[in-house]
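Ops channel
N.P.: pipeline sanity check, posting one input/output pair.
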């Protein structure tokens, strides 16, 4: 449980950073003249929290195959896109422009999901490599070469 919390905490900050980047890009494309106040800084934090709902409420309880993992991540990305688009566009009349923005936003969610998975894989691989090196050094200290 502690490990699940730490993983989600780390992913939250990765997601928020990538959401900021997505908002910058989509804003420059769809509303370059738009100016905001400081209150907009809350949106990436809220969207980041919404983006973690699938992993928080549906944690992986067992090891799964690569196929199961990919399917699980795709379902999570779809759920996240629906949640975030639902929050953004609820109560708005769905004009052609909003539909395009919602689709771009959904694609952005998939890109963010993929990047979060890539970044966490790189970080986890680095951690695993360092642990293996430390374990090897520890084993060599316990059992010097040529003695076993």
């Amino acid at each position: 449980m502690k490990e699940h919390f730490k993983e989600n905490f780390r992913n939250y900050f990765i997601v928020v950073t990538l959401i900021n980047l997505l908002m910058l890009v989509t804003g420059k494309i769809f509303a370059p003249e738009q100016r905001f106040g400081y209150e907009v800084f809350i949106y990436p934090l809220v969207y980041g929290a919404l983006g973690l709902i699938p992993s928080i409420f549906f944690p992986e309880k067992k090891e799964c195959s690569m196929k199961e993992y990919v399917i699980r991540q795709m379902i999570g990305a779809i759920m996240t896109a629906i949640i975030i688009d639902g929050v953004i566009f609820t109560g708005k009349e769905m004009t052609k422009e909003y539909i395009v923005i919602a689709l771009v936003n959904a694609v952005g969610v998939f890109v963010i999901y993929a990047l979060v998975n890539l970044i966490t894989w790189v970080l986890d691989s680095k951690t695993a490599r360092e642990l293996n090196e430390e374990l090897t050094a520890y084993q060599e200290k316990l059992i010097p070469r040529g003695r076993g």
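N.P.: looks fine end to end. The chain has a mean pLDDT of 86.
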